[in-house]
Amino acid sequence: MKIEEDRQFLIMQRNDVSSYSLAGVEALLSAKEERKVAREIRQQNYAAKVAAGASSSATVEQEHNVHIQSSSSSSISSNEEFQVSSPETKHQPKQPRVNFLDDPNVTGALDRVNLPDRGATYVVGAVAKALGHDVSTVTLSRSSIRRSSCRNRQKEATLHKEFIYSQKLH
């Protein structure tokens, strides 16, 4: 070896193999490269899947348009206008959602028995169904129960502070 720095590295590597090894760095780099290649393959597969789905839906749409054009040209004379028949949809007004959770007594009771949010969701749904409510019209989610509990706790804390403050003044 003619380069003094390389010779010193070789001597140090022979004396203390673990501290002068590049194996750890190379292993990390190769693992990183493998993850990168796997990610690129997944992206290519997803892009191909999306492209295949888009082309198949475009093909179905083109076939549908050809079918409409051929049937309309045979059944409609030149004096008549073509009108697309749409299915009769009856717009039903949305039913307002029933929210049992606005009542501080309900969220307070759920808090007192230390029910987790998911358990409270199950209980509220079962009680609403037993009382004859349509569960699809009841506000029922873990996050809505959480928000209602936090909101009602905040109201209770404010009322408590106001009560304590009014007691101190008298």
Low-pLDDT stretches are none
Order of helices and strands: HHHHH
Oligomer designation:
single chain
> Averaged pLDDT, please?
78
Fraction of helical residues: 55-70%
Strand content: under 5%
Number of helices: 5
Q: How many structural domains does the protein architecture include?
A: 2
Key structural traits:
about 170 residues; mainly alpha; 2 domains; about 0% strand; flat
Describe the model.
This protein is mostly helical. It folds into 2 domains: about 5-70; about 100-170, no CATH class. Helices cover about 70% and strands about 0% of the residues. It contains 5 helices and no strands. The mean pLDDT is about 80.
Concise structural overview:
Helices cover 68% and strands 0% of the residues.
Topology:
Elements: H1 4-15, H2 23-75, H3 104-112, H4 117-130, H5 142-169
Helix pairs in contact: 3-5, 4-5
